[in-house]
Write the structure tokens for this entry.
Amino acid sequence: MKTFIKNIGQLATLASSKKGARKKEDMSNLAIIENGAILMKNGLIEAIGTTQELQSQYMNELKDALIFNANGKLVTPGLVDPHTHIAYGGSREQEFDLRLRGASYMDIMNAGGGIHATMRMTREATEDELVAQTAKRLDGFAKHGVTTVEGKSGYGMDLETELKQLRVMKRLQQSHALDIVPTFMGAHAVPKEYKGREDEFVDIIIRDMLPKVAQEKLAEFNDVFCEKDVYTPQQAERILEAGKKLGLVPKIHADEIVSYGGAELAAKVGAISAEHLLKVSDEGIRQMAEKNVIACLLPATALFLREEAAPGRKLIDEGVAVAISTDCNPGSSPTVSMPLVMNLACISMRLTPAEALTAATYNAAYAINRQEFIGSLEVGKKADVVLWDVASYEELQYLFGVNHVKSVWKSGKKIV
Ligand SMILES: N=CN[C@@H](CCC(=O)O)C(=O)O
Ligand SMILES: [Zn+2]
């Protein structure tokens, strides 16, 4: 199957010959081709260049290709969401109401709501119900230009339900058009019955859960909510080191509510990314830059929790590679809109429009170890492509709060 998109006003390829997630000024290099074109074949990018070049070089190939005219609009790589909690049961709109009346996120969680409420609803749901609910969310992601989504377990907090969530994602990886990258997050909260005996639950995660997850190859990453009143840096370190021995790459929910040494721990254990970072310390930033830990920033979560956003500008200026994500979850960020997240990255964290696009594509792919296949439009990579109803990436970030997606191709197949 061949598809040819021509007359692309601004083709933001993000192509690069450098290795590694992009830092500092490299985050502004979108490698734009004016009046561009892409030829997709068998799910991959076969050729990319100007419309004129491709039309003359691939004259024969184009005879039986599907032709799309972009009419001067913007094309980018499919967006990559490197941090979500998509496979959950139920909903928590009552909590939103409570928070607006003054309760804090942690008050609600410590009173048995929050993550615990979703845990109960996820335990009650059947695997089929979770597959159906999660598929709907993935459809929403696709409509917003996202072609790859990371997804975490962590609403089970018992072996059976953690495995159920991971199997749901595995089934969707087979049946849904989008790619799903699974992360185990057994340490997402402390189950009520282990309050005060957190170390015992850490032992259960290490002894019972991690080996099973690794044995069934249900996850690639291992994440921990390292936060005051949740897991200490020491407990998080034990879990992450145990995962590493089983081949699971560490990620950390770090320094979200208070500054707690999460970024420093990410550097120490060699985490691929540290997430949230609203309250990251200067020393944490320094260590992340030195150890090449990607900052995965979640500005929609900060907005929804009415908190000041993470210091995105400062992280970039200090040499940390930044990715951005929806954090899609029922409590602190019930959105599937990566375009909104890019807008917020500019508005609330002072990323430039170009940096926000890099953070949602190239660096996001690095944050989930998919850089060889996605995140930029280059020959041989997956044909994950978005055509937007705007003329430029600047306009995409400027006309905020609107879904400008016109068409989406996933592995060369038009899905929106
Ligand atoms: N902060 C911890 N975990 C999630 C929220 C999960 C929830 O509230 O259900 C997050 O990344 O925002
Ligand atoms: Zn999260």
Q: What stands out?
A: The chain has 16 helices and 16 strands. The chain has two domains: 2-77+376-414, 80-367. Residues 48 and 60 are 16 Å apart (CA to CA). Residues 80-367 form a domain with the TIM Barrel fold (CATH 3.20.20.140).
